Amino acid sequence: MQNSVFFKSVINSDSILDSIGLLGQYLETLIGCQHICLLLPHDNGRNKLIPYSFKINQTDLKLLQQMAIDTDLFSDMSSGMHLCITMSSAKPAIKLLSMTTFQSLYTFHLNRSVYGAILLCFRSPVQLTDEQLHICQMVTMQMEQLIEKIYFRKQVLKQQSYENLVNTLRMKDGFTLNHCYNVAFYASLLGAKVGVDAEQLEQLKISALLHDIGKIAIPDSILLKPDRLTDEEFSVIKQHPAIGYELLKDLPDVQKILPVVRWHHERIDGSGYPDGLSGDDIPLLVRIVSLADAFDAMTSTRVYRHSLPVFEVRRQLEINVGKQFDGLLVQAFLQMLDDHMIMDRLVWDE
């Protein structure tokens, strides 16, 4: 199993606690770490921490929280720092560690829009190799992405204008809604990568989330069909961008997101739908969402087909440059995947 499978499992999760379980299984296999603690600051400040853990008892969990608060873990300890009770040090962190059932600990910071730390705990003295530290840094970034996505969902649902539409889509087809959240997340990563400013980035997230909203008007017999669509059925599905545009166009403050909703299936070569736009006539944010949409579709499993292997997804993006996708965006997207080590070669025994 490639680490991209772990990444996809994390991104598809709706729960930090569930993802800590996935993380624990992953790291237990790869580096022998059986005990994990994620600490996130409470809304009221860093002196109160919200803990999530994997195979850690309550006594140890409270001591780890206390260690983080007393030693100001988030600023005094560098990411990847190693603590071990065999170290000759009077540091408060070493003393607190010695009170737990653990003998060795590594800390990894969450440094993006979320703040917090992952603590990897061992019952015996451990010295991780460079390759193992690399794995830890990778999964730390992927946990950051999960937490960002969950925070993003909460933020969107506070916006009353869209809440009813999102809830309607949730009731009709949970798979499509989760796909929309994933597309919004991938699009925001790509938008940031290519320099989209903060205001447009928020616009990008919302428009990507609502890009498939027109599917709420597609008959269930087609939308939820557990098999490949016929040509006639696909022609019905192809109406969803125009339907979504009609659903949203009269709502307040939606003018800037309508292009994504209507045009996310347009193609660079002009063969897309519904309006046959091509090249630079397709706005940048639309091109970003189109790429994120295709990536999530290719890496998702449906009843009638498996997800594509990572190397094939990459190949499909590359061969469709100038046809379906903007070449500069594909280049940036693939670099972004490499930056986040989604496609790095870490293979488990199958």
From TrEMBL:
Taxonomic superkingdom: Bacteria
Pfam families: HD_5
Transmembrane segments: none
Domain HD: start-end pairs: 176-298
Sequence ranges assigned to domain HD-GYP in this UniProt record: 154-349
SUPFAM superfamilies: HD-domain/PDEase-like
PROSITE patterns: HD, HD_GYP
SMART domains recorded: HDc
This protein's name: Uncharacterized protein
Native source species: Paenibacillus sp. BIHB 4019
Organism lineage: Bacteria, Bacillati, Bacillota, Bacilli, Bacillales
